[in-house]
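Progress note, sequence design subtask.
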């Protein structure tokens, strides 16, 4: 093979050269992928650092001390009503109207419900008709008696003049006596008929259920169409009452005092009541009586306490804490409004005082105004008693930040 042939074999064909030159370039894609990975790692790291829980210490906001400072004893109990009634009918019947709902205010004598009254109305009409008939017979006998007395008088005049026999006059007087006796009997029958009519009227009135006193309906026990009976012992389909009425003016507090400390409680001594539902509301009160009986199982003595300020927020069966006070001056001392928090819980953000309240695993920033109270601060608004606040919040703590409570102060 000559040299020319060898050179032709070593020559690269144009098609082969173009195929090599058109191969894709991969390195820009690789560099871009690396940059994307680095960016994702950076964003993830920033998000983890931003949402990392801040370790904080907390304390509970407390209501300012008032009368408790002068209390000789504290006890817990419940609001009770001295006048409370489950209203029912005095007869058995089917309800045709129920005119009350829970929360309604009713007055004494107001109609609460009505029963089916057709049979009672018929009995009343019959009894009243009998009474009217008996009275009519009384009137008839009265007329007959008057006529008989006139006849007897004329017979006496005729006997005096010797025109008729004395026997005729005696018969006339006998007729008068007989009619007088009949009249008396008929009057008694008329009274009995009137009494029966009154009984029928009372039975008819029993079909209307009325409020026994002024109060508030706390429970509606029956509906239209149900049978109600005062003799039912419960169960089945018979109701024993239409509803329950409570006289809110009769509300008081019953507390159980440990018998070891009952000597500290005296009748009429001042007290202060705090409802569990409204821990920052102090109600002036005083002792009504110490019930002269002890509970052997609990070793307590019941004490009745009167609430001097009545309010619609006070309802039966609410939990109450009662502080028995030494003097009335202590009982009437003004309690500052707001809550007490540690002074270190007050932080400044953008030139304003704020506190951070723990809500679950995060904090909520709330603007406040505070006053110094020794080593604490009195916050008038923005924080409720019992809420948890952050003590010495770090500078990086912001509204909505996640927190981890390390130690809770009292």
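Output:
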């Amino acid at each position: 093979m000559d040299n020319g042939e060898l050179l032709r074999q070593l020559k690269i064909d144009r098609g082969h050269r173009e195929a090599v030159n058109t191969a894709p370039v991969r390195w820009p894609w690789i560099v871009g992928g690396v940059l994307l990975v680095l960016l994702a790692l950076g964003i993830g790291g920033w998000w983890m650092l931003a949402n990392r829980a801040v370790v904080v210490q907390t304390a509970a906001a407390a209501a300012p001390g008032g009368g408790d400072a002068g209390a000789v004893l504290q006890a817990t109990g419940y609001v009770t009503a001295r006048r409370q009634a489950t209203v029912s009918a005095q007869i058995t019947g089917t309800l045709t109207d129920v005119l009350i709902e829970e929360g309604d205010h009713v007055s004494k004598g107001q109609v609460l419900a009505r029963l089916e009254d057709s049979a009672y109305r018929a009995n009343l009409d019959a009894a009243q008709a009998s009474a009217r008939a008996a009275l009519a017979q009384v009137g008839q006998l009265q007329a007959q008696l008057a006529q008989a007395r006139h006849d007897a008088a004329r017979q006496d005049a005729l006997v005096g003049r010797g025109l008729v026999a004395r026997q005729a006059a005696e018969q006339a007087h006998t007729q008068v006596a007989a009619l007088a006796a009949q009249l008396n009997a008929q009057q008694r029958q008329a009274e009995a008929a009137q009494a029966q009519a009154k009984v029928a009227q009372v039975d008819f009135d029993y079909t209307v259920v009325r409020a026994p006193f002024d109060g508030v309906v706390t429970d509606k026990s029956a509906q239209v169409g149900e049978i109600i009976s005062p003799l039912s012992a419960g169960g089945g389909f018979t109701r024993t009452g239409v509803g329950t009425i409570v006289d809110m003016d009769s509300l008081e507090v019953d507390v159980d005092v440990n018998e070891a400390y009952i000597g500290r409680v005296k009748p009429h001594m001042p007290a202060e009541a705090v409802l569990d539902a409204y821990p920052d509301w102090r109600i002036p009160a005083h002792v009504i009586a110490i019930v002269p009986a002890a509970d052997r199982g609990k070793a307590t003595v019941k004490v009745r306490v009167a609430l001097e300020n009545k309010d619609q927020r006070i309802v039966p069966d609410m939990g109450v804490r009662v502080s028995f006070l030494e003097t009335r001056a202590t009982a009437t001392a003004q309690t500052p409004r707001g809550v007490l928090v540690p002074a270190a819980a007050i932080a400044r953000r953008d030139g304003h005082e704020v506190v951070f309240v723990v809500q679950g695993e995060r904090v909520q920033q709330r603007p406040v105004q505070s006053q110094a109270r020794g080593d604490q601060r009195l916050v008038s608004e923005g924080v409720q008693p019992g809420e948890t606040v952050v003590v010495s919040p770090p500078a990086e703590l912001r509204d909505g930040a996640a927190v981890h409570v390390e130690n809770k102060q009292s």
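The first helix runs from residue 3 to 10. Work on this subtask will continue into the next period as scheduled.
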